[in-house]
Specification:
Blueprint: H1 21-40, E1 48-52, H2 72-78, E2 86-90, E3 96-100, H3 107-110, H4 117-124, E4 128-131, H5 135-142, E5 150-153, E6 157-158, E7 163-164, E8 177-179, H6 183-192, H7 196-219, H8 226-241, E9 245-246, E10 251-254, E11 279-284, E12 286-288, E13 291-292, E14 295-300, H9 307-326, H10 333-350, H11 358-363, H12 367-370, E15 415-418, E16 421-423, H13 426-434, H14 444-449, E17 455-457, E18 460-464, E19 469-471, H15 479-486
Parallel strand pairs: 1-5, 3-4, 5-8
Antiparallel strand pairs: 1-2, 2-3, 6-7, 9-12, 10-11, 11-14, 12-13, 15-18, 16-17, 18-19
């Protein structure tokens, strides 16, 4: 990553080429999984996978078009940037087809050249391209068996949003047989583990986002507005990374706002003035060709940690590092969440905010008072990538654990966020201070002193490997690193070998 002075912006990064082979491989992965499922169910290897891409949306009743972003399952299989498309895959022949909207002549006046179908065939590396008003005829003619073609449509529950994916619709679909149950779980599971080409895009999104976080960290000053920090991040990722989209709305929280887990929404719009003594919690991640990043950095706005800030920050960093050290295929994510909780509780006890037996605190779920959210979530084309809960899997019901976005065991190729946090949220803290089951664990005087502290979260994007994991996020994390970067030291900090051979500094 490029180094820069506090007064300048630069980057050693440039947007990488996007290989459409990535989406061809995704289609092959789906076909292999789907054909295997059909064979094991003694069903014929026939029919079409059919997905409908996203449509442009206007702002309420106006003619203002919102910036289009493709529906994620469609993006995964076809990589199409434009709205109004359909995509099909012939299970028997393995052919891939796109169906483009037939645009009116005046599109060329207002929106630019009307591309021929061959343009989309070459751009997206599919077998054939037709118009959307030809779907019925094309699928019927392509079907090589006797009878009515079977369409495998996407319909299933997103366990993060509790919303259902939309099955494709087109004029004449009633003439086909449809299957609404088979495709969704198979395609969702395909998205859970990432290919090397997918990982390369996620890594770039991480690299440019890391660079932007460092830039923001370096330029943060008391008296600025939270939205100025957001603006610097968005500028850097777009200016140098070509990232027109963010993975999610930026959270730029300082002071007591950093205890608001999803701060930054329209009713809390990153508009507070940074004050001396505040901690900043910046949760921001860029998206590149649909693939995202999700990174949180926490640091004091004046560039120097106080004792209290160091106590809370170190508790979270130790939890973050311990989880990453323990991650490997087969490890339970529920166990990782509990590990993070326990380390944070032990640190708060060491800092004299808590008293008593930590194991008893764990039994009473005291950790959920300080970390009410889950430890992390799958990451890919969506910030909260699907597949966190397999069909039939139940969410844990205990406080804190019930917020986990997955309870699965880790698989090689998963990308998952590790984002422990420690927050002082009155809505949770005040009832706990009065609760007969947990009030005994608090040093009430010290806890009350921290009630306006806000919170700390440290979040990295981690890829599970065959023997462990790789942290794809390279932000300054240690207290001394953050203070050095905020004082103007280039990042990454170059280590020099001492002449005496005593190691590195």
């Amino acid at each position: 990553m490029a180094s820069s002075s506090p007064s300048s912006s630069s980057s050693s990064l440039s947007p990488p080429m996007i290989p459409m082979e990535l989406h061809s491989l995704n289609r092959e992965k789906l076909l292999n999984s789907l054909r295997e499922h059909l064979s094991s169910s003694s069903r014929p290897l026939q029919g079409f996978v059919l997905l409908q891409g996203g449509e442009e949306q206007t702002r309420h009743c106006t003619d203002h078009l919102e910036l289009f972003r493709q529906e994620s399952y469609f993006a995964y299989l076809f990589g199409v940037q434009e709205p109004g498309f359909y995509g099909a895959i012939d299970i028997a022949s393995r052919k891939s087809m796109l169906f483009a909207p037939r645009l009116p002549a005046d599109y060329a006046v207002w929106m630019g050249e009307i591309k021929p179908l061959t343009h989309f065939q070459e751009k997206y590396k599919v077998t054939q391209v037709f118009y959307t008003d030809e779907i019925k005829e094309v699928l019927s003619n392509q079907y090589q068996e006797m009878g009515t073609p079977l369409l495998f449509l996407l319909h299933g529950l997103n366990t993060d949003s509790n919303k259902y994916s939309k099955p494709a619709e087109f004029q004449g679909i009633k003439k086909f047989q449809t299957d609404l149950n088979t495709l969704h779980p198979i395609l969702t599971e395909c998205r859970v583990t990432k290919s090397n080409l997918e990982l390369a895009l996620i890594q770039f999104a991480n690299d440019i986002s890391t660079e932007a976080h460092v830039e923001v960290m370096r330029k943060t000053k008391v008296g600025m507005k939270e939205y100025q920090l957001e603006s610097m991040f968005l500028h850097h990722t777009y200016m140098y990374g070509g990232c027109r989209h963010c993975s999610y709305t930026c959270i730029c929280a300082t002071g007591d706002n950093s205890a608001v887990l999803h701060y930054g929404h329209a009713a809390a719009p990153n508009d507070k003035t940074l004050r001396e003594g505040d901690m900043a919690l910046l949760d921001m991640g860029a998206e590149y060709h649909f693939y995202g990043s999700d990174i949180t950095c926490s640091f004091p706005v004046n560039g120097k940690f106080t004792r209290d800030q160091s106590l809370v920050y170190t508790a979270v960093l130790d939890a973050h590092d311990a989880v990453i050290s323990a991650m490997s295929p087969g490890v339970s994510w529920v166990d990782m969440h509990k590990l993070a909780e326990k380390i944070i509780l032990e640190s708060l006890k060491k800092g004299q905010l808590l008293v008593g037996d930590v194991d008893k605190m764990m039994t009473e779920r005291l950790g959920a008072v300080f970390m009410p959210h889950g430890l992390g979530h799958l990451l890919g084309i969506d910030t909260h990538d699907p597949g966190g809960y397999l069909k039939g899997a139940e969410r844990p019901k205990e406080p804190g654990l019930s917020s986990l976005r997955t309870s699965r065991k880790l698989l090689e190729g998963m990308v998952i966020t590790v984002e422990p946090g420690c927050y002082f949220i009155d809505a949770l803290l005040l009832p706990a201070l009065e609760s007969p089951s947990v009030s005994e664990f608090f040093n009430h005087g010290e806890i009350n002193r921290f009630r306006a502290f806000g919170g700390v979260r440290i979040e990295s994007d981690v890829c599970v490997t065959a023997n462990g994991c790789i942290n794809m996020t390279k932000c300054p994390r240690k207290i001394e690193e953050i203070e050095a970067v905020m004082a103007g030291v280039p990042w990454p900090i170059k280590k020099t070998t001492l002449p005496s051979g005593n190691g590195q500094v």
